Amino acid sequence: MNRYNEESSSLKIAIVSAVATAVATLFLNGFMSFFSVEKGLVRIGNSVKSESGKYMTTIDVFNFSETMFTKIKLSIPQKIEKKDLKLSSPVDIEKVLGDDKTSIFSIESVAENSNVTILIESDSYIDTNSIKIEKNNNKIKTDYSSKQKNRTKEILIQVGIIAIIYGVLIGWYSYYQDIRIKKSLNEKKILVEEKMKEIDDLVATSNNKFKDEMQKSECAISKAEKQTLKVEKNHESLINKIKSIEADSIKHKILLLSRINDYKKELNFWKDTIRKVLYISNQDSSKADEIFNSVRGTLKTYKLNEKENYDLETITVLADILKNEEK
Questions:
Q1: Residue 93 and residue 281: Cα distance in Å, rounded?
Q2: Is the model's pTM score more than 0.70?
Q3: pLDDT of 180-204, one tens digit each?
Q4: Where exactly are the structural domains of the chain?
């Protein structure tokens, strides 16, 4: 996107430069044309002696424009009358001032895109360089045949003027473009600095968030480790309690089995004693079984069986188990 914007900006600058150059050239050419191209020309020829002994001097007036020339005045350094003037076309010309040394005539009008030739007939030679033209705000140029100008010099002067004007315009435009480019670069530099600052702030914010998250994670891990240790301790304590309960259970079982064994020994002793008493008294041996069954019925000890043998071997095995558990 940035590359597209840069190319678009470069294209705009190129277009603006081309248009500005074209406008400057057009303005300069128009300016030079306006001030250098003649709207008219008064050409003063040399004074030539004719076969009649008279001197003939021609003055040509050219109007190249679309407007009429008015009141162009000719100052001739001799006494000349209106009858001494011969015109190539009907033009209103009047003598406005004159004495023995100077005659001034006024060409009242010269139509647009036309020309008129004035032939001055005099008795003596006229110094054409002394003929003066009063333009009266008409944009015309005076050309003396006796003063052949160096056209190369004129061209060089015009080219020099044009070159100077071009140089000034191009210099001004280059200066303007330089200021504009510097301004644009400065604005882009400020924009880049702002973007870099935003990036730095974003990185700093991300680092702070990362540190906070790391601290939270470390706290959570530490808390979890503590919980794990606590659970392990509780588990160990629970195992110890279970082992203690199992040991107590075995102890109780050993105690109960010991008592049962003692009770069994005592019961067998009394049974044997009863049998012996009945035997001595010549009673039937089955009488003893009836007595035993009557006792069971009364005490409801039907599960007791003489075949059950609670010996010391079982008690010894349980005692060994308890001993190993305590280790």
A1: 204
A2: no
A3: 888 888 998 999 999 999 999 999 8
A4: 38-147, 232-326
